Automatic annotation (TrEMBL):
<dbReference type="Pfam" id="PF17775">
    <property type="entry name" value="YchJ_M-like"/>
</dbReference>
<comment type="similarity">
    <text>Belongs to the UPF0225 family.</text>
</comment>
<dbReference type="InterPro" id="IPR048469">
    <property type="entry name" value="YchJ-like_M"/>
</dbReference>
<dbReference type="InterPro" id="IPR023006">
    <property type="entry name" value="YchJ-like"/>
</dbReference>
<feature type="domain" description="YchJ-like middle NTF2-like">
    <location>
        <begin position="43"/>
        <end position="137"/>
    </location>
</feature>
<protein>
    <recommendedName>
        <fullName>UPF0225 protein F6B42_09320</fullName>
    </recommendedName>
</protein>
<dbReference type="InterPro" id="IPR032710">
    <property type="entry name" value="NTF2-like_dom_sf"/>
</dbReference>
Length: 140
């Protein structure tokens, strides 16, 4: 299962003062909330964290908006059945404010009817018209 193609159980957005689902320890309003509302990500890692949060809360619009047009599937809507329960960023390579390409390696945990699972992916990101987009990823 690739994070880019993964399913999620749609949920409600966290309260602005709640801890962000991406695991940053920041508030939702100070972390992924503005990105889900349409603000551009400053780094590839910020975008990856916001995409994880979009899977947690079932935000298909954010997933579609942040998927590179060359690799975006027709349907980006998360499917019911998977609950995302944790994210760990393993490493980043490039993907900073002045760069156009970046790599983010991460582990994301999910729970479904079969138990708890771990997704390990190295994702590639590119800027399109000045905004970071998810291109694709390799499972590790």
């Amino acid at each position: 299962m690739s994070f880019g193609r993964a399913a999620s159980t749609a949920g409600r957005r966290p309260a602005p003062t709640a801890t962000c689902p991406c695991g940053s320890a920041d508030s939702f309003a100070g972390c992924c909330g503005p990105l889900l509302a349409g603000a551009p990500a400053e780094t590839a890692a910020d975008l990856m964290r916001s995409r994880y949060t979009a899977f947690v809360v079932g935000d298909a619009a954010h997933l579609a908006r942040t998927w590179h047009p060359r690799t975006r599937p027709r349907d980006t809507a998360p499917e019911p059945g998977t609950a995302w329960i944790g994210l760990t960023v393993v490493r980043t390579e490039a993907g900073g404010p002045g760069e156009d390409r970046g790599v983010v390696e991460f582990r994301a945990r999910w729970r479904d009817a079969d138990g708890v699972h771990d997704l390990h992916e190295t994702s590639r990101f590119e800027r399109v018209r000045g905004r970071w987009t998810y291109v694709d990823g390799d499972l590790g």
